[in-house]
Amino acid sequence: MNNGQILMADDDADDRFLVQAAFEDNDLINRIVFFEDGEQLLEYYIAEENQDAPNLIFLDLNMPKRDGREVLRVIRKNTKWDDVPIIIFSTSNAPDDVVASYQLGANCYIVKPSSYEELKDLVLNVHKFWLQPKAISC
Amino acid sequence: MKLSTYTLLRRSLSEQQLSLITRFLFGTSLVLIIALSYSYNEINQELVNYSEKVNQTQHVISGLNKLSSAIYETTYHADSYIFLKDTVYINKTLAAIKVVPEITKKIDSLIKDDGAQRKRLNFLKEHAGKFCDYSERLSRPATLINPGAVNALYKRKNEEIASMIKLIGEMNKLEDQLMYTRLQSRDNYMQQVYRYNWIIMLVAVVFLSSAFVLLDRELRRNKFYRVDLENKIENLNRSNSELEQFAYVASHDLQEPLRKIRSFSDRLVAKYKSELSGEVFQMLEKIDNSAQRMQNLISDLLSFSRIVKTGTEAKIINLNTCLSEAKSNLSEVIMENKASIHSESLPSVEGYNSQIVQLFQNLLSNSIKYRHENVRPVIRITHRLVDGEIIPGVKPSHQDIQFHQIKFADNGIGFKKEFADKIFIIFKRLHARNEFAGTGIGLAICKRVVSNHNGYIFAESTEGEGSNFYIYLPTESMLT
């Protein structure tokens, strides 16, 4: 099923491939737009034709040109897409990075899992929590 | 700059030799100056003494001259009366006679130490007495009527005068001699005083200048030590920040390829499970295991390096609370192994709470991990106060302070004596991986934590009979 659009900025092609594969292996059909660095994502963000908010953003922290922190800062400072959930997806588990990301307005901080099985389960759970349309109560 | 620093810091003499030489120089200079001052004083006293004696002799000589004058005056007046018969001279004669005993008395007081002169003076006094008597009798108008008596008295008076002149001449001669030797001695002492002045000044100058040279050398050396120390601190800060950078690189860049190796081999298995032969499957599993192990090593290394950076400020912490925190973190392991932990009441120290919890936790889990297979693990924790000097390899500055000794004694498998130091080395393991899991970081972290607290940790054991771990934490906080 198609459950909305995801943006993912990560300079690591393997990671982009693995996330795509994890979605596919979970039989989840999402439109995932990939960016190789923060600058590409910000160009996409600014562009006139992309007014529709995505459903979720995966953001790596350490990228060339403009890194995840800058992207986070820009998106959270503006009104455009201000309610889009942003998941920081990084190899770093340094407390400083975690704290800084939440302070800048990240919704979730996930350390990249070290096995594919873990990643697959993670993608499934993220999908359930952030992307499945919820029944509106009350 | 580097070279000159080195040559300046290098000592041609050892610290001890230098200190000995300084003491010797100071001591001898002091003794010399005191001795010289003492002799100077002695000589000075002699000089004063001889100066006084010279003065005295001069007084004696002038006294003798005055005596001669008085005799001549008396004679002159008496003779004038006899020949001119003018009564004016009677009183003049009597006045001149009066002066004579006064002068002899004065001379007497000046030469009372000189026996030979005194003898002469006594004779002189005798003759003077007679002379005065004859002169007085000659001055009487009654005597003048009788020319025979005048003649006799006049003759006898002249005899007395001759004797007195002779005695005075002798005394004068003796005093002249005395004067000569005394003057010579005085000049001699004066020269010596002059010489001593120079010697004392010379010694003082030598002493002062050597003190100055030594002090100047020490000050310069001190300055270079300070510069050297500042450089070292700068280097240390630099290498610390490099270490932090390394930790970051290790966490990110080194883990990255490993993660890929694991992820892809994992996916390979997941996706092509049905197509893979058993052998390929096994090999992939080995790849995954190795990669995982390396990940563990890197992350352990990272957690070890993070302990260097304390971050938080030291606080007064109760070790009992730390111990119960550590126990609650390990509650599952403790339950599983039915371990019993007995602890005495522990003190409070100034330190980093999380690190001490980590220390206790690592020691407890270490003791439980290396248990005898069929024996319930028992860990006893005891505390006592000890003096710094009993700790092996203690730093000199720690010798005089008290330490808390906290002992963890277990009934586990122990280890051979020769490994007592090695077990604290990072990644050092005493057992094969299939016997006991783990990277070998636990005790290395313990050692790091204890050194962060300016403390010491030691282990002792007899193989098969359990181990004792001793932690020494200073009672006075030395954390800044």
From TrEMBL, chain A:
It holds the Pfam family Response_reg. CDD domains: REC_Rcp-like. One of its GO terms (biological process) is phosphorelay signal transduction system. Residues 5-127 form the Response regulatory domain. Keywords: Phosphoprotein. The modification 4-aspartylphosphate is found at residue 60. This is Response regulator receiver domain-containing protein.
UniProtKB/TrEMBL annotation, chain B:
It catalyses: ATP + protein L-histidine = ADP + protein N-phospho-L-histidine. Residues 249-477 form the Histidine kinase domain. SMART domains: HATPase_c (SM00387), HisKA (SM00388). It is an enzyme of class 2 (transferase). It holds the Pfam family HATPase_c. The chain crosses the membrane at residues 20-40, 196-215. Its EC number is 2.7.13.3. GO terms for molecular function: phosphorelay sensor kinase activity. It comes from the Bacteria. Keywords: Kinase, Membrane, Phosphoprotein, Transferase, Transmembrane, Transmembrane helix. This is histidine kinase.
